[in-house]
Write a structure and sequence with these properties.
Blueprint: H1 3-31, H2 37-83
Helix pairs in contact: 1-2
Length: 96
Amino acid sequence: MGSGVHAALADAQATRERHDAQATGMAVMSFFDPIGVTDLAEPAMKAEHRRELDEKYRRVDEEVRKTVAEAEAIKAQNQARETRPRGRKPARQAAE
């Protein structure tokens, strides 16, 4: 895999971990929230987390597609080199 794919995956993982920490924080806050304000904020937080992760995984998909395209181009170049006739080098013409 290309370095772009690794970076995108690491970014998505870091985002996921941050979301988990935020959800844990929200759960702790809800324990101390007798009127339920955190219950109102939770759906918005989950929607934002979902949107952000979708964006991160779209980037991962783009990086994977880019890496596959690069690999296919390299494969085509190698195949073209292999099928090219390997004749002798043209002899130098004598200077007239």
